[in-house]
Amino acid sequence: MSRLGCKCGNALSNVNSPSENILYVWPEELIQKVTQSAADMSAFDFSTTIGDCDYEVWYCQNCERVAVVGVKERRVRAYYNRVESGETVPDVSGWKVFYEISEMDFDRIIEQNFEIKISDVAQNCLRLWLSPDQRQVCIETLEGTNQLIYILEEIVPVKAVL
Ligand SMILES: [Zn+2]
């Protein structure tokens, strides 16, 4: 159980599970590896074993900031959503691809079908692209067309929040 203070003043928490402040973000290569080698693996087993990465991704519903907490390095990378109309989307070729789903949506899917495979859940995930310098993130929208652009705002040490 953890809490994380957002820069906007909002207090994020995963005390209630599922939490609207938690996002699951998995590298595409991890999803691909599993769907090739263990195609029948359930989403639940995946999320509690190999999908348990050494970072946590927190989302603030108040200001839409995203905080990536490196559990081992004890650093928080804060990203804000850059909203500018008419902006060109960066060329994401060569960027690392991730699959993202909120803990709320993930739990809802599991609740409907506990046996559902991770490969099927992956199809309900949005994709995001992380730039090689980790300063920019592009996120696919639900429409699959436009992309939200997130910019690295700061890297700070983990305080006594975890
Ligand atoms: Zn916030």
Summarize the model shown.
This protein has one domain.
What does this structure look like?
This protein has helices at 28-37, 43-48, 103-112, 118-122; strands spanning 3-5, 11-13, 22-27, 55-59, 66-70, 75-82, 96-102, 126-130, 136-140, 147-157. With 162 residues, it is an alpha+beta fold. Helix content is 19%, strand content 36%. The protein is built from four helices and ten strands, in the order βββααββββααβββ. It has one domain. The strands form two sheets. The protein has an eight-stranded antiparallel beta barrel. It has a two-stranded antiparallel sheet with strand order 1-2. The chain is globular. The structure holds zinc ion (ZN). Residues 6, 8, 10, 60, 62-63, 65 line the site of zinc ion (ZN).
